[in-house]
User: What shape does this take?
Amino acid sequence: MPPTIISCSLKHLSITNFQCDMESLLVLYEHTPYIEYLSVKLCDSSNDYPQLPLLYSLTTLNIICEDSFRLVETLLR
Assistant: This one.
């Protein structure tokens, strides 16, 4: 079930012991517009990655990615 509430107060988030795909990360971005710190493990076997929006509030991004260089390249665009 996708989230339905946009959080304006969530600023720091670490997701451990769970692998997140790009679509889930996109939904997370859309629902946490003021996030400043995000730590997540990405796992996505798809070859078609969505372009993530710029988050001007994000100052620290910690990503563990074991699947593909293309996934990292998409994140850094």
User: Anything to note?
Assistant: Residues 12-76 form one domain.
